[in-house]
Amino acid sequence: MRFTHVACERKIESMESIYLKTLVEVARAGNITKAAEILAVTQSAASRRIKFMEDQYGQPLLDRSGPVLKVTPAGSVVLEQAQKILEIERDLLSKLHLMERRKGIALVCTPTFGVVHLPEILREFMLSQAELGDLKFVLEMPEAVLAGLKDGRYELAVIEHCQCLDLAGFDAVDLVGDEMVFAASPALGLGGPETTLDRMFTSTLYTRSEGCCSRTLLQNNLANMGKTIEQFRQVVVFDDLHVIVNALMDGRGVAFISSDLVRAHVASGRLREHRIPGFTHVRKRTLVLGGGALIGPAAAFVGKVLERLGPGRAATPLPALG
Questions:
Q1: What's the CA gap between 51 and 305, in Å, rounded?
Q2: 73, 117, 134, 297: least surrounded by Cβ within 10 Å?
Q3: Percentage of the chain with pLDDT > 90?
Q4: Could you give the CA distance from residue 95 to residue 19 in angstroms, rounded to a whole number?
Q5: Is residue 68 part of a domain?
Q6: Do residues 170 and 154 make contact, with C-beta atoms less than 8 angstroms apart?
Q7: Is 74 buried (19+), middle (13-18) or exposed (0-12) by CB count in 10 A?
Q8: In DSSP terms, which residues pair with 255 in a beta bridge?
Q9: What is the CATH number of the domain that holds 18?
Q10: How big is the CA angle at 33 (ends 28 and 36), to the nearest 5 degrees?
Q11: If we measure between CA atoms, which residue out of 178, 211, 37 comes closest to residue 112?
Q12: Which residue, of 98, 122, 147, is where some domain finishes?
């Protein structure tokens, strides 16, 4: 059995395919920055691709005169054909992938599931799958997860996400929700399990980058109360969950974080959970199927996920992170 764990993987694509996909995402988002985030490239790289296409075709493809980018008449023609070409490519990849996946799994997930639940699920799963071939799993942001499912890179996904994520067109199963809490060292003296934003604002906030679901949920909660993330004493951004948890245990600040990630430390007394009245403290967790019938190991893996986090179940107690 060959086991592959990658933090970020992209399939090999032709240059034309990359450029066409960039135009499609820019047209959909109306914004190069947002399209670049979805494609997991820099804004300058996305801009260069559009410029290359405009030079190649000799016409502007985007109308940049307004706050939202729109395709020009020439861009509309290219966009229509690009969507057809990419659909053919997705169909081709899907059929090739179907031939390969009888002995392996391609899974993509968001970080909390990947860090907390995936290792134990994999341990149990591999004990029962002696004939398993390649196993690939990738950690991504929710929108990048959906992009990977759409283009056939992955057949399964587990996503922690906000309500606004559009899963239309996918087969999806609701799993046990992911409770989000403020976590901090008791030494900070931020009150009991139910506390106030004013107390939270006295501390440094440790958070992940823009676009992360936990940060989006926090910002939405704050906006609903007429507050902003800038009201914390300081905001420190780390994309490594282990670093954030260690900072909390050192008493350096607070984080709006999955209770799964800190449960063991809360039980030991090293951290304390805090909830804010009026906040939405639970985000959705969903198992998403990329299309086609589940075959062999993929079906067995889904069974293990449902055993642990399926509807009506409580999340299994977790080891300490950090």
A1: 44
A2: 73
A3: 52
A4: 23
A5: yes
A6: no
A7: middle
A8: 183
A9: 1.10.10.10
A10: 75
A11: 178
A12: 98
The CATH number covering residue 252 comes to 3.40.190.10
What are the tokens at 264? Answer: 């063991």
- Inter-CA distances, 295 with 138, 155, 221, Å: 20, 10, 41
The residue type found at 74 is A
Is 302 part of any domain?
Answer: yes
* Six token digits for residue 80: 């229509």
Helical spans, DSSP H, in 101-212: 111-112, 118-127, 142-150, 197-201
- Is the same domain home to 188 and 211? yes
Calpha distance 69→238 (Å, rounded): 31
pLDDT digits (tens, 9 = 90+) for 52-68: 999 989 999 999 998 89
Nearest to 217 by CA among 276, 157, 144: 276
pLDDT digits (tens, 9 = 90+) for 152-203: 788 889 999 987 788 888 889 999 999 999 999 999 999 899 999 999 999 9
Say which residues have a Cβ less than 8 Å from residue 306's Cβ, sequence separation at least 6.
173, 175, 287
In tens, the pLDDT along 286-316 reads 999 876 666 677 888 899 999 999 886 655 4
93 & 104 share domain? no
Task: Find all residues with CB under 8 Å of 262, minimum gap 6, and list them.
Answer: 181, 183, 245, 248, 271, 273, 321
Say whether both 86 and 107 belong to one domain. Answer: no
Is 315 part of any domain? Answer: no
In a shared domain, residues 305 and 161: yes
Instruction: Quote the domain boundaries for residue 168.
Output: 100-172+288-309
Domain total in the chain: 3
Does residue 83 form part of some domain? yes
